[in-house]
Amino acid sequence: MEDYLKQREQLITEDRAQRVDSARMQSLTHIEQKAESIVRAIRAAEAVSVWGVNGTTIFDYLPDDKSPNVFPGMAFLTARNIAVHTQLFQILSRMPKGALLHAHLDATVKARVLLKLALEQPAMHVRAANRITPNNLRATLPEFKALPQDQWTSLASLTEDSYVPNEYVPLHKARQNFDQSLGGPEAFDDWVVSALEINPSEAYGTHNTTAKIWAKFTSTFMVSGNLCHFLPLWRKYVREFLLSSVDDGISYVEPRINFWYKYMTGADGQENVTHRECLVAFDEVLNEVKAELKRQGREDEFVGAKIIYTTLRMDQGDNVEWYLEDCLALKKEFPHLIAGFDLVGHEDSLKPLTDYIEPLTKFKARQKELGLDIPLLLHAGETLGDGSAADMNLYDAILLGTKRIGHGYSLVKHPKLMEICKEKTIALEVCPISNEVLRLTTSMPMHPLPIMINHGLPVALSSDDPSAWGSTGLTYDFYQVLVSTEVSGLITMGELARDSIKYSCLEDAEKERALALYEKQWLKFTEWVVHEYSAASADGTRKMPN
Amino acid sequence: MEDYLKQREQLITEDRAQRVDSARMQSLTHIEQKAESIVRAIRAAEAVSVWGVNGTTIFDYLPDDKSPNVFPGMAFLTARNIAVHTQLFQILSRMPKGALLHAHLDATVKARVLLKLALEQPAMHVRAANRITPNNLRATLPEFKALPQDQWTSLASLTEDSYVPNEYVPLHKARQNFDQSLGGPEAFDDWVVSALEINPSEAYGTHNTTAKIWAKFTSTFMVSGNLCHFLPLWRKYVREFLLSSVDDGISYVEPRINFWYKYMTGADGQENVTHRECLVAFDEVLNEVKAELKRQGREDEFVGAKIIYTTLRMDQGDNVEWYLEDCLALKKEFPHLIAGFDLVGHEDSLKPLTDYIEPLTKFKARQKELGLDIPLLLHAGETLGDGSAADMNLYDAILLGTKRIGHGYSLVKHPKLMEICKEKTIALEVCPISNEVLRLTTSMPMHPLPIMINHGLPVALSSDDPSAWGSTGLTYDFYQVLVSTEVSGLITMGELARDSIKYSCLEDAEKERALALYEKQWLKFTEWVVHEYSAASADGTRKMPN
């Protein structure tokens, strides 16, 4: 028996040797050991007290079971309001998260906050395809537009009898006069929010397939785009994104910005703001935020931000080459701001990467000519397909030399590509909640992340489009991951956070600084965990799993 | 570009080199090539016409989408009645399936057939914990029992006012007099069937977690056990299992028989039939079936059957050693019938394999003493856990020298164990539909099978407990697998079928014969596909995926 247990221990060690935490687990500080135990004990206790684990045994069959179908790592849109009240969530919200490497800017600020920002803009108007009534409220989408001052209207409401379909109403008026029979201004807010977020009845009911939920998801961008892409609002949006990220413990961000729209709307209501002007604005906001944090003595919490230039995987009048040249020009002028290039959108239905081999190859040649370096950071394998075009995108992303892979959800089906990703340290930007809401998985325990981690694939946890799932920051993603495993613990989460910095597009010196700052934050955080939760978990502490 | 495509081709080839079909795909006969193309064309056409692929684009958002959430490989209990009407299903139902290596005998015969067999037995009675009324029908389970003749009752109904709770009513009477207000005899049948099967509203609604659905699942065994474990009925049950398997194209079966109950009920209604007598009966039925098939000129369709001796992973008065000794004694007397040993039940809640290391080690020593060879065929990793006890069972199954792994669902999380399984050819008995109904995955595209296949893990597709999901045989499992991939095709399915024979517990000579017979069946089958479907798919044929 002793022999057997020794053999067993060794087999487990070999099996887990490639994990991101395998080295560190051998050399934990006393504080780290304590923090790890505390978090494991809290997780185990909350698995029972919050998520009902062991609440049903196999002999408890009741034909009309009315107890909720809850479990750790369950469907996020249903779990969210339970999760936020847990100790584990409170702890993770304080954890330093490192870098956010995969997030689409237009879906990073909470819907209600975006609406608040929009209400501050007198130019912002809203219209609907019909007068809003209780019967059509759910089926009608708001359409926003910032108008030039000479087109501002004096209409008062989307709900009164006299409303002419598709006429713009000033946003604050439309809200203020939203009919009381519909619920008044608060119902207006809910209506807008429901157009910007995916709700559980859609994801888990009416739109419960990847294709259908993507239709809803795309519609949220159509609604939000017309709010965000108004420069005065956009500046505040970027600011809000940066500050809320820092508040969530994120020290560096690489948002993907969609430059498909060639112009943004300016303060004068004209669609004439160039991509260059957007970058100038972004840089200004970024510097303001840095200055502000410095004034607050928080400069160590934020290293900065760089932009991933993206356009859509679709045909347009101009082909992708216009965007590639645009990206080159921007990189030349703002070398510190442009992190890389990506093609985005629903892989299952839009154009495959094979359609872009020539322009992207040329793009690399042009960089050489111009002495620039713009890594590709391509979405690939965000799909359930096995050999489908979206799954095959992984071959092309890797052959095209992508620096990281956006999602790479289906990568675990590809042994050779896994080998290459490990050898070349091509990190996967894994977005757990996004994958679940967009129906690639129905819960975290079914997500391939543990496969990736155990096989030693480089991973950076990311949020993708948090506003669409009613969240912001990275705490939620870390939470869903941490509750769905008994192998990984707090130390693992810390290693994933460090890796997100390591796999970022920061320059070497910046990266070194970011990693050094991370260690300071980590020490402070683990000390806080031990100080705050030692007593509480003293009785809950249990043997660590093997 | 040409260079790129050459590189791409090579990368794909390397990535897929470990697949079960990689060698064969290089040397297809003309007939196989044609059959493969036909099946791929039909699959592609039915993906659209049956499963609505491409029916929604990302721009088709409708807030109140009423279209069904269908897609290829979707939840089986909902898909079943759609699938059976497809051409692909018709084709697969004719495909030779090789061996069935993972099926629990008590859940292999359709519920309605079992009920029919039970109605033929005058000794069979049924009772309920209360008089059945419309209000409690759904919440009450039928309890069956074969009674000794002196205890047969003359009660007439479970539904009449005078029914005293827990009094036994002769089965045929209970059915015949089931109150018309409840729906009469047909409603009785539905009531029994719903206690023997998992229905979609349970799996996908009220019991939509692994823990809860296992509670329902276990209850089906409690209901069926009292029907099956009556020797006169059991003989007919075994016969039905064997014949329906052969009809489904299965040429060899290794059912797991649960010997947890030490005695079966005999024709006299006494619980005194020993395990030895069960095996004698099994052998007799097996020989009858063989003789019958021979009379029909079908002897080449069936190689035979061996039993996997199983008991439950639970404590009982006697410990597991009683069963191990019992298994040894049976193997000694029926060496041709006992294929191996397994411990079964819900891994997430029952005892882990670590509790059985000593007895199982001793079991091996005892085999040596007695000159016997009883391979372990252990369930392990039938779980969503990541480092949970059920997931850790994989380490023990392998260290204990298991010949195959029952399920191994979580094996893909274990790089070292994957290596060992490939090296030692430890096959995974993968049960796609079972995994989905029991909520390890919510659809086939989310199932890890493509990961297993692409990594070259040895796999045998199995049905587990088909009667619980209203199916029999292996056609359904092959169907769900085949519609959920664009890499695998008919040839892959054939290779999986051949492998099931290869990984069986047949003796070498038997195995050789079975494989030779398979090739005859395969040739006939592929010729039939080409003959039957060439014209139909002529216009649907499309380029094979890479």
The helix/strand class of chain A is: alpha/beta
Compute the gyration radius of chain A: what is it? 24 Å
| Oligomerization state | homodimer
Terminal Cα span of chain A: 17 Å
Global outline of chain A = globular
Most residues in contact, chain pair and counts: A-B, 86 and 86 residues
Number of helices of chain A: 20
Biggest sheet overview of chain A: 4 strands, parallel
Instruction: Classify the helix fraction of chain A into a percent range.
Output: 40-55%
Strand order of the largest sheet of chain A: 12-13-14-15
Mean pLDDT over the full residue set of chain A: 95
Low-pLDDT residue spans of chain A: 538-546
Strand content of chain A: 5-15%
Q: How many extended strands of chain A?
A: 15
Textual characterization of the structure:
The structure is a homodimer of 546-residue chains. With 546 residues, the first copy, chain A, is of the alpha/beta class. Chain A has a domain at 122-196. Helices cover 47% and strands 10% of the residues of chain A. Chain A has helices at residues 2-15, 30-49, 76-83, 87-94, 111-119, 171-176, 184-196, 200-206, 210-228, 231-247, 275-295, 320-333, 357-370, 389-399, 415-423, 432-437, 449-454, 475-483, 490-502, 508-537; strands at residues 98-100, 124-127, 143-146, 169-170, 250-253, 256-258, 264-265, 271-273, 304-305, 307-312, 338-344, 377-380, 404-407, 427-430, 459-461. A four-stranded parallel sheet of chain A has the order 12-13-14-15. In chain A, strands 1-5-9 form a three-stranded parallel sheet. A three-stranded antiparallel sheet of chain A has the order 3-2-4. At the A-B interface, α1, α9, α13, α14 and α15 of A face α1, α9, α13, α14 and α15 of B.
